[in-house]
Design brief:
Elements (H helix, E strand, L loop, with lengths): L3 H14 L12 E5 L5 E6 L8 H14 L10 H11 L8 E4 L13 H8 L3 E4 L11 H7 L4 E3 L3 H10 L1 H9 L1 E10 L12 H13 L2 E5 H7 L19 E5 L17 E4 L10 E6 L2 H6 L6 E7 L18 E7 L2 E6 L1
Helix pairs in contact: 1-6, 2-3, 4-5
Length: 342
C-alpha cells in the first residue's frame, strides 16, 4: 500500500504532465502545499518559462487559502510573490508540508531561488520526488538541510521513475540541444484524415505547444492534403496566440508541391532530407501521419497521440508497419485520450 507521501507526489507528477513541454526550455514541475491535518492548501505548476516556479505558485495559493488576503493574488511576478510572502507569512507554514516533483532550484535565474523562500518560511517537511541533475539549478536540497529544514528525496522507485519520465523533454533538450516531439491525432477507429479530429481543448493544448516551440515540421503529403496554417491561433493565455514558428516541409518531390498557405509566408523551408532534424536547435514539433512517423522514427524523442472517441465510415487505415512504444503517461484533454509515448 502506498504511503501518503507517495500518493501526493504521484498526484504532483500527474498535474505536471497536464502541462508537459509547455515550460520548455524549463522542466514541467508541480508542487503541493499540505496542512498538518492533510488538507491540500495550494497547488502550483510551472507552465511557461520565465513565470513563477511551481513551489512559488503553490505557496501563493496556500497563503491565500489560510489568510484570504487577496493582495497576494495580485502579485504576478516571482519576485513580487517572494517579497510579499517574506514580509507577510507570519509563520503560517511551520506546520505545513511541501511536496515537489523536482528538487527546488537554488540559483538566481529569471526568478529567485525557490530553496531560499522555502527555508525562510520554515516548512515542517519538504518531500521531493527526484533530485535536480542540472548543475546550474542543483543544491536546493543541501541548502534546505543546512537551514534545518526536514527535506528529503522520497525513497520510492516508482515515484522516481515517474518523475524522471516527466523530465524527458527537458533532459533531452539540455543534453542534445533539441527535443523532437511527433504529434498525431486520430479517431477511435485509427483514422486520421478527412476533417477536424481533436476537441477544442486538445487543439488549445497543441497550439500552446506551437506558441513555445521553435519549429513545426510536416510532410509534403500534409501540405498537399491540408495546406495548413501552422500557427498558434487557438493558444490560450499566458501562451502567445500570435506566435508563428518556423516551418519545415519534408518531401522527395519538391517540384510537385503546391504553393503554401499565405499564412506561412516567409517562414517555410523545403527539405528533401529529414536528417536536417539533427541540426535543429530547440523544441521541434513534427505533425503528420503514421507513414511519416515510420520514416523519421530515428529522429523522434517522444510521440504524442491524441485519440478522439469517435469513428467515421469508409475510412481505410493501413499502417503497413509495426512499431512498439513505451507508455510514459496517459490522461484526458477534454473528450480526447492523450498518450505520451517513447
Amino acid at each position: 500500500m502506498r504511503s501518503l507521501d507517495e500518493l501526493i507526489l504521484w498526484h504532483c507528477c500527474e498535474l505536471a504532465w497536464e502541462h508537459q513541454s509547455l515550460a520548455l526550455p524549463n522542466p514541467s514541475v508541480c508542487a503541493i502545499v499540505v496542512s498538518a491535518n492533510g488538507e491540500i492548501l495550494g497547488t502550483g505548476v510551472h507552465i511557461i518559462a520565465g513565470s513563477p516556479h511551481a513551489e512559488v505558485l503553490a505557496i501563493q495559493k496556500a497563503y491565500y487559502t489560510l489568510t484570504k488576503d487577496e493582495q497576494i493574488l495580485s502579485c504576478q511576478s516571482s519576485e513580487s510573490i517572494h517579497q510579499y510572502l517574506l514580509a507577510s507569512h507570519q509563520n503560517l507554514f511551520t506546520q505545513c508540508s511541501l511536496y515537489v516533483s523536482l528538487e527546488p532550484c537554488n540559483h538566481q535565474g529569471k526568478t529567485p531561488p525557490c530553496a531560499t523562500l522555502i527555508a525562510h518560511l520554515k516548512f515542517a517537511k519538504v518531500c521531493i520526488a527526484i533530485s535536480e541533475s542540472h548543475t546550474l539549478a542543483t543544491g536546493g536540497l543541501s541548502y534546505l538541510l543546512s537551514q534545518k529544514i526536514n527535506a528529503f528525496i522520497l525513497p520510492s522507485p516508482k515515484i522516481a521513475h515517474y518523475a524522471k519520465s516527466l523530465l524527458l523533454p527537458f533532459d533531452t533538450l539540455r543534453t542534445k540541444g533539441r527535443f523532437v516531439l511527433f504529434k498525431l491525432a486520430q479517431r477511435l477507429d485509427g483514422s486520421y484524415k478527412n476533417g477536424r479530429i481533436s476537441s477544442q481543448d486538445s487543439q488549445s493544448f497543441t497550439h500552446n505547444q506551437r506558441s513555445v516551440c521553435n519549429y513545426i515540421c510536416i510532410s509534403g503529403a500534409t501540405l498537399r492534403a491540408d495546406n495548413p496554417q501552422l500557427n498558434a491561433r487557438y493558444a490560450t493565455y499566458p501562451y502567445n496566440n500570435t506566435a508563428t514558428p518556423q516551418v519545415l516541409v519534408f518531401s522527395r518531390t519538391l517540384r510537385a508541391l503546391p504553393a503554401p498557405n499565405p499564412a506561412l509566408h516567409n517562414r517555410v523551408q523545403f527539405c528533401e532530407n529529414t536528417h536536417i532534424l539533427r541540426e535543429l536547435q530547440g523544441f521541434v514539433i513534427v505533425e503528420g501521419g503514421f507513414a511519416f512517423l515510420h520514416n523519421i522514427r530515428e529522429e523522434i524523442d517522444m510521440f504524442l497521440l491524441l485519440e478522439s472517441p469517435h469513428c467515421i465510415q469508409n475510412e481505410e487505415n493501413h499502417l503497413g508497419f509495426d512499431e512498439c512504444f513505451s507508455l510514459l503517461h496517459q490522461a484526458h484533454i477534454g473528450k480526447d485520450i492523450v498518450l505520451w509515448l517513447k
